[in-house]
Amino acid sequence: MKQNLTPAIIIFLLVALISCCFYTSHLLDKVARQLLSEVSALELLLNDKDWEGSLSLRDQLADLWEEHQKTWALILDHQELEKISDALVRLENRLRQQNHEEAEMELSSLGYLISHVPEKEKFTLQNFF
């Protein structure tokens, strides 16, 4: 009887593991899209040189990041999270200095870092094995 249950348990655990991988990938992608939407809106304000609006939206982006960072910390390498947090701080400084070129560079870097995370953690056979 025990021998008959062992393959079923292994299959169940494998299915559960794969399901968790897909759910995690979906969660990361969903949050990244939200963050990138804010980054795109911030880019429009920055192009208009609306410094107050840019700072306000950057603060909203930072709040959204703080909200989701705790969840991402359970899944991701902490260095990736620190890079995003650092980019947000640098972006704030560039916006306060009203330095358009450097703010654009920081915003671009932030967008890349955010979009890079779901791609890096995406469930593929190459990442699985």
3D structure, described in words:
With 129 residues, this protein is mainly α. It has a single domain, classed as Up-down Bundle (Four Helix Bundle (Hemerythrin (Met), subunit A)). The chain has five helices and no strands. It has helices spanning 2-47, 51-75, 78-96, 100-121, 125-128. Helix 2 runs antiparallel to helix 3 (78-96). The relative contact order is 0.13.
Give a short summary of the structure.
The chain has 129 residues and is mostly helical.
Distance between the termini: 32 Å
- The low-pLDDT segments are none
- Quick one: CATH class? Mainly Alpha
Largest sheet: none
Using the 3D structure, state the CATH architecture.
Up-down Bundle
Topology:
Blueprint: H1 2-47, H2 51-75, H3 78-96, H4 100-121, H5 125-128
Helix pairs in contact: 1-2, 1-4, 2-3, 3-4
Describe the structure using short key phrases:
5 helices; 90% helix; elongated; Four Helix Bundle (Hemerythrin (Met), subunit A); 129 residues
